[in-house]
Amino acid sequence: MRGFLAPPSPTLPPASALLDQLQLAYILLDRQGLLVEVNETLLTLTGYTRTEVLGQSYHELFSPLSYREQRQQELLQVLREQAAEPYYEHDLLARDGQLVHLHWQQQLLRDAEGQVSGLWAAGHQMSTVREMPGTASPEAPVYLQEFFNDSHDLILHLKADNSFLFINKAGEETLGYQANELASRSLADIVHPYYRAKLLHQLRRLYEGQALNKLETVLMTRTGRPVHLIGSVSCVRAPGQPLSARVVLHDITDRIKAERLQKVYYSIANLAISARDLPALYGAIHRELSKILETNNLYIALCDDQRTQLRFAYHIDQYPQLNSGASRPFSSGVSEYVIQQGQPRYFSRADLLALLNDGTITAFGRLPEVMLVAPLSVGERTIGVLAVQDYDRADTYAPSDLDILHFISSQVALAIDRKSQEEHLARQNARLNAIFESGTHLLWSVTRRGDLVSFNRNYADSYFRRNGMMPAPGMNLFESERITTAPETHDIISTYYKLALQGQPQQFEVNTPDASGAPLWSSVSLNPIYLPDGSFEEVSARAQDITESKNSQLALAAQEEKFRSIFESFQDIYYRTDDEGFFTIVSPSVRDILGYEPSEVLGKSVQDFYYQPEQPFTLAGELRNREIQLRHQDGQPVTVLINSRITPSGTEGIARDVTEIRQIQDDLRLAKEEAEAALAAKTQFLANMSHELRTPMNGIIGMIDLLHQTGLSAEQADYVDTLRKSSDALLTILNDILDLSKIQAGKLRL
Domains plus CATH for the chain? Predict the structure, then answer.
């Protein structure tokens, strides 16, 4: 409240004074191990004054000579490595030469920059302890018993035969024994068999007078669980008393578990690299998990992305229902339940029965007494489960073990997923490599500098045929091609490589003669190999030997050129049409015959060029010596003789111009008709003349015959006879002339 002074805050006494009140010794050391501060309790125990102590070396002053150097090195190592054990036991050498046994707690001091500047420690004298039942010492102070019982460390007092004289409350709780249960036991009965021989040997050395500053062992709890402990042990030699040992142990089980867990975690991470295949990985995971958990019954079940199948990739069980690799439909088992929940689960038998009774899960096989199931997750994906179980003991696993399994399951999932991807990539690479090597193509890749990265067998064989040597990874292909390839060819190839290295895919054909000089044609493709970020450092190349096809192509080109020459010099019209009667090819001779340019005809229907479009026949069909009339560009008819045939894509044919031939034929026909008419007139004339000539001649001959019968003188008779002969001769000549005319007229009858 404003106007009133706040009550003064309580003030703590200095640390040394506070520890004096607790009867704890106190020291403060710098980085060299020199004493900077001590309290009165320490001075009282050792018999020194403050002036005699401050500035002195702690171990030079207080450590027994037999192990002074060792302790000095241990202290310097702690300060150098900046790591100190929180608890330890050391004897202090008092001024009078007696040893004072103290149990210490220590902590490093750091400056403002976080660097170690020194160390402080507080310790209590271990002179009397609470004894085991039947051996209690009446001199034991009550406050020391309370102090020991309040300690979190295990404090033991052992006889020389290692039987128990005393155990504090922390020891009873940690090991699960009551003090009266240990009265009839020895330390050897509860130590782990693996560590028993070593511990007994160390204690025997202790009783023989050898110093034993650090003790590390494993004790077994009443239920059989191991407890990892570290601490110190000292031998008690009191006048008139038997030898005994005082042991202060700190429980480091959690630390050991964490260390082992970390080792297992990294081991499983490395297994993804070192395991040869998935079955080997599963077996190795099982072995690693057995170092931190009971794994007599363990399985790994994996599901597909669609969650239609659950495959037990690894299955080790006392009562096997499935074999490793077996599958079942994704249903309502415990594994499916955890996959769907996405959280690790600890199941007791009662938990499983409750889930069975309400229909949440279905039982497959025998129910365990306890079960731990952790999902195997990679990012947001759950790929399966990792499970351990026990059919006999419910205390085999504690709920805290679920955290361990869940922690490990993440690395197991990553290892399985990585190895699965590796096997998938290996199979894919095998397929690609088979394709890479089994095809007829030449495949290779180069860096931006031209270094050969990879190539297949076909490329190696082709390179050998061309250059007489085998290629090798890392060789500079650009330099090699420059040396072994003709300059003009090298320039062509270099140009295409430069364009490809600029990110432009290239496709080209090139002739690279082999070692004998024979042509070797290749069809080459160059493509940049792009990385996910869009950059590229390599170019892949693919080539195919096209020598035979190229030779055929060149031969075909020569034939086409020859055909084109013939085609262009063709006097008749060669044409092709499609199925609908449109011209697709027409020879240049159409220009001479019809007056059209070929470009004016292509793409048009044959109907467009009929002189009489109503003609029932078509050029787009099969014709033999069919004469039709086409329309010339000037509109005049042009008579052509068509021969065509049907092809798979339409028709093809030849049209020959017969206009002049038909004109000649018409002229000949007309001349024939005229000649025949003249011949007919001649025949008719001769027929008429035959009658006109023969009748007078017959009359003359008849009159000569009558004259001859009249009385004629010899001279007259001679004249008449000559006249008769001449008349007969003339008649014969006339008959011959008339018969010749009949022959010419074709009317002579034999």
Answer: 13-125 (3.30.450.20), 139-251 (3.30.450.20), 258-426 (3.30.450.40), 439-551 (3.30.450.20), 570-657 (3.30.450.20), 674-745 (1.10.287.130)
